[in-house]
Recover the amino acids of this structure.
């Protein structure tokens, strides 16, 4: 007899969004807290999502000529301190290695919080001529930032990421690289994660420590809070000068190269949860789902059902889908709830009558729609339904984003709109830090970005009344 | 006019094997020393070799049901110390984090030297019932061991590796897993890296700290020294008991699971260099070569040559080969030497006359053999030549291994054989540590392994004269 195993309930997102988020992280078996305070464990299902993200991004990076490398994880303090802004930005969050074996080190070593310094050090020893430029490097690794409060995926003392680091002969080439990688992130978020983004530039206050310009893809979660998706930085020749990275130019003179870096992290898994999840659990975009299709045999004790299910699984696997079959003796109700919790995009149900009639049922995770499917059409129908799910997810998220951008013409209005609706509040801005700080203080919002797609909402900064320089988005961010 | 750029010479291996090795590491652009003492940088070409190794191994692990996870990199000292043998084995080599940001930590944290403790900690919190067993995990990461002397790939304070960790309901299942993963490594070495191995069991002296049994695949380098290729460990329930990992068994009672771990590292790149390299540089097995085929246009200024080369590259890429074309204005001599240095398995030469005659020339890295190839046969001929190269490499390495295993019946004979020939010296052995230590002291050899394929060479231990328990291989190891 089928065992009646209960799928544990999760908190409704309308009741407590933060708890709902944490529940999904745990119940979908993505992540586990470690014994080390502030550290997390990526469990197989969570890590498999990350692997799919990695594989696709890595392919995109390589398409545009980037190569992977591995730099040491420990950075001598003196090396880290060569660029003042960077170290000031990261020093409070650095974990320090002070002993190797039983000996105290002469100089303490930082666990990398980011690796600009190591790449610069490498280039300062290896770069010779403009013929070797550009150098387009990337690495996949973990970094440590000693955060005070942590949340799975969103803020963790150790997190996993890629960090791209490139140097170029000219400022223009480095700027073009910065924008190309921003666009790469925008493509990845929209076309792979099904998360629409607002690409834009960060204010000086919010930019990366030491960068000349930081660009971001900003996302909106289901609770209408903002999440910074990924960032791309232009450094000019600031680090080159600080780390004495030079090359012999076309004019036969020593020159400083121009530099970029760009990064994205396991935080993207948090973005996926909060963009697509619902009260039944995780909803995964088919392009990154570890299991795209789960086959559930109905009345599997009846003759031929398990064999029929196995045949469907084999065909779907053969066609290149990531597919599994659940032949356990748990009840059908439990299984459906379990794979909904895990966000599997499409479920295939096949019972004895279905198989007799030469059909099965496909069920979409997004809207529960049941699609009868003739067995001979299985592969084509599965491909079609996965595409529909991917598109539905993007459309829904896009609607959430677009319906929650509000225009304000005064600080008071901005504050009120945020309090009433949440979301992004767009205003003009004079560019002064004072106004940015005032918005934070009075309305609780940080600047999210100055979108690349600018609109003219007026002539003056609504905070100080001085002439406006740019249109800007504000929000409450993760 | 073609620039005459000189390929830097490397030391002959017959003159100074160690220098030859280091020269290849640097000149083939595999690795670079970092500013941090004892740490290395994996450059794009070296990392690309590692990526190919990773992709293939990862696929093999997944085929047998293993899943990847990510455990925290830092381990609390108290957690590390729960299993006495492990911590005694690794404590002298641990790097310690003592400060997070500006605060001194209450308890210092070890940069993982290996992660048995973290996996056990996870399981102690998460494992519940036998139904969840086995748990078959693996992770790709870097570890730190604070070695005193270091060499690229062979011994480095940070190195990159995979560590598999599994728990099982029964001892038999865990033992079977240990042997399965040993076999997996043997397959990978022989069929992918083209390195023949001697699979066997380590002595108690040489086994992994805390393991009940350690198995190894031992390789022989061109200088007839031994290199431990990869290891697979069986722990019994020792760690389960130390870390209180339990599950409810079929008998409804609490039980301790049985555990394994197995690992392989970037050291394998060192093994590839020293097994296959020659005085012209690196020789890479086609299965892991970042570039399998280099296309070199001859007299490329002549009309049609570059277009012809581009067409060949496109066809080879289309057929799934990793291929590049060198269209630089360096001389043909430089290019040939450069791609020999980098160990590219097959070179395709195409000049104006070749193309007119509808042919090109394939050149094997292994023996320099030139194979004329009709353009219409390009893909098939390339596949064939890559297979030949892979096989030639294995055969040559196998010959080196087999010709350098010597049988000894006395300590004196063993010592003399090693001094004269190097290689593996096989003897019988009583199993006592005293004899093992004596062999080290008198003949400078450590025990390599007790091969799975045992032979009976006699009845007594040649060192002490007591009854022999096993046949064993001795050697001088990296």
């Amino acid at each position: 007899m089928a065992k009646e195993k209960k799928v544990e309930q999760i908190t409704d997102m309308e009741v407590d969004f933060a708890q709902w988020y944490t529940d999904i992280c745990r119940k979908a078996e993505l992540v586990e807290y470690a014994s080390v305070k502030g550290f997390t464990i990526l469990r197989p299902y969570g890590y498999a999502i990350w692997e799919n993200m990695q594989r696709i991004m890595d392919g995109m990076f390589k398409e545009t000529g980037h190569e992977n490398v591995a730099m040491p994880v420990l950075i001598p303090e003196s090396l880290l301190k060569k660029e003042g802004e960077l170290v000031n930005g990261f020093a409070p969050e650095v974990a320090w290695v002070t002993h190797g074996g039983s000996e105290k080190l002469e100089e303490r070593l930082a666990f990398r919080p980011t690796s600009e310094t190591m790449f610069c050090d490498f280039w300062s020893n290896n770069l010779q001529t403009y013929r070797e430029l550009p150098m387009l490097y990337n690495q996949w690794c973990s970094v440590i930032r000693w955060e005070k409060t942590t949340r799975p995926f969103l803020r963790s003392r150790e997190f996993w990421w890629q960090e791209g680091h490139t140097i170029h002969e000219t400022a223009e080439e480095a700027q073009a690289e910065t924008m190309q990688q921003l666009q790469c992130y925008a493509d990845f978020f929209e076309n792979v994660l099904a998360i629409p983004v607002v690409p834009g530039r960060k204010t000086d206050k919010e930019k990366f420590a030491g960068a000349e310009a930081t660009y971001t893809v900003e996302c909106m979660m289901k609770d209408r809070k903002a999440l910074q998706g990924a960032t791309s930085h232009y450094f000019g020749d600031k680090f080159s000068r600080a780390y004495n990275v030079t090359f012999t130019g076309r004019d036969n003179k020593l020159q400083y190269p121009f530099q970029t870096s760009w990064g994205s992290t396991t935080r993207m898994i948090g973005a996926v949860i909060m963009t697509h999840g619902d009260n039944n659990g995780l909803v995964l975009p088919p392009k990154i789902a570890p299991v795209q299709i789960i086959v559930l045999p109905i009345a599997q004790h009846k003759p031929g059902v398990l064999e029929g299910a196995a045949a469907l699984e084999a065909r779907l696997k053969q066609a290149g889908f990531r597919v599994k079959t659940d032949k356990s003796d748990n009840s059908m109700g439990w299984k459906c709830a379990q794979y909904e919790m895990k966000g599997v995009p499409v479920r295939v149900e096949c019972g004895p009558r279905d198989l007799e009639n030469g059909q099965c049922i496909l069920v979409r995770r997004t809207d529960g729609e049941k699609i009868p499917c003739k067995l001979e059409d299985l592969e084509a129908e599965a491909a079609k339904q996965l595409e529909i799910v991917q598109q539905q997810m993007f459309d829904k998220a896009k609607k959430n984003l677009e319906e929650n951008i509000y225009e304000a013409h005064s600080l008071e209005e901005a504050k009120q709109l945020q309090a009433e609706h949440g979301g992004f509040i767009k205003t003009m801005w004079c560019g002064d830090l004072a106004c940015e700080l005032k918005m934070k203080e009075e309305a609780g919002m940080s600047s999210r970005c100055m979108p690349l797609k600018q609109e003219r909402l007026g002539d003056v900064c609504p905070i100080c009344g001085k002439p406006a320089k740019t249109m800007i988005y504000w929000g409450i961010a993760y």
The longest strand of chain B covers residues 158-168. Chain B touches chain A through 53 residues (CB under 8 Å).
